[in-house]
Please model this.
Amino acid sequence: MPDDAQERLQVNLQSKLRKLICKGLTYLDISDAGTASQLEPALSFMKLLIERFEVRGQLEEARAAKQWLRLQGLLTPEATTQAEANSERYLESSQLQGRVRMRVGPRILTTTGGVYTPGQKIKDNPLVRNTGQDVVLTCNKCGVELRSSWVFDYRGKLQTLVPTNGHTACRDKYISVTGIPLVRDTLLDICPHNTRLSICVKCGGNSICIHKKQRFQCQLCKAAATTQSEVNLDSSQPEGRVKRRSVLKTTKGGVYTPGQKIQDNPLVRNTGHDVLLICNKCGVELRSSWVFDCRGKVQTLVPNNGHGACGGKYVSVTGIPLFRDSSGMLDICPHESRRSTCVKCGGSEICIHKKRKYDCMLCKAAGYKKRTRRQHGQFAE
Model:
C-alpha cells in the first residue's frame, strides 16, 4: 500500500476512534468514583495528549479540532464552558480565509492576516530585504494562501522567504504558485566566507567535525559512533552478544567471530592464527582466525556485509584470500558445489531446464513474453 494511502487510512481510523470515544463518554457518568477509577488510565492519557499539544499551540489549531475540543469538554467538566467558547471561536476563524496563526520563538505571529512577516532577527540580516512585491504562496495540503514580499539575496540569487514550519494548522509546507524559488527562514546565517555558518570549515561550524568534514559525511566519525554504540550495548549483555536488526554482532572488540550456524559448518574451522583485515573505506582494523576450507583452498572468513558503519568492505593487509560468511555461499553439497547452484541437487538457482536461471535463454525468453503480455493485458482466461 502506498505511503499516502496508509496515511489517509490512519487519519480516517483515528477520526472514527475519536468519534466513538466522544459518543461513549456522553453515556457515562465520569463523576462517579467507580466509573472514573475504571477509566482513569485512558482518560489520563487523553488529557496528557491535550496538555502536550497546548504547550505548543492552541487546541483549535489541531487537526480534527472539533473532536479534540469536544473531548476536552468531556474529560474536564470545569473546562466545558471554555471548550464551548473555543469551539465557537474555531468555527468563526475557519470561515475567515488567509488568517493563519504561527508561533516562531516566543509566540510571535509571522503570518497574521495571510501576510508573512519575519522576526526582527531575520529582518536585521544584511542579506534579507523587503521587495514590496508580494509572492503568492499556498499550503501544499489545504491550499490556504500566504503572501510574502521578503527575499534572501545570496550569491546573486533571490529566494522568497517562507516560514520554516510551514502551515502549522495542517503541518505541511508552503509552495510557490508561480514556481519562484523559496527558502526557509532558518537557513540564512551566512559567514564571511560566503558559506552557511553551520557547515563552514574555516569558521568551525557546528556541523563540522574534528576531521574538518561535515559530520554526516565523515566516515571516521561514523565508525567511532558505531564503536561507542556497540560498547554501550555490549555492557548490558551477559556475554557481550548484541542483536541489532536481527543480526548477531560478530565483530566485538575488533575480532571477528561467526555465528553458531557458520561455526557448525564442517568446512569452517578456527586456525587460532589471526589475519589482519582493514576496511577499504575508513581503515578500521578487524582480526579473523576463522577459515573456509573447500577443495583444498583455505580462505579467511570476513563479515558478509563488510563494515556496517561506513559501508566499506574488509580487505587483507597481506593479500590472503578472503571469503564472505554468507550462509548460502558456505552451503556446500555432497557434489562439492554450492548447493544453490548444484544441478544434481536441484538448487534454488537451477531452472527446469537444468541450467542456472540467469544463464538459461529459454527462461529469459519466457520471462520476456510474460512481461510483454502483461503490458498489453493479453492474459489467457
Notes: The longest helix spans residues 3-26.
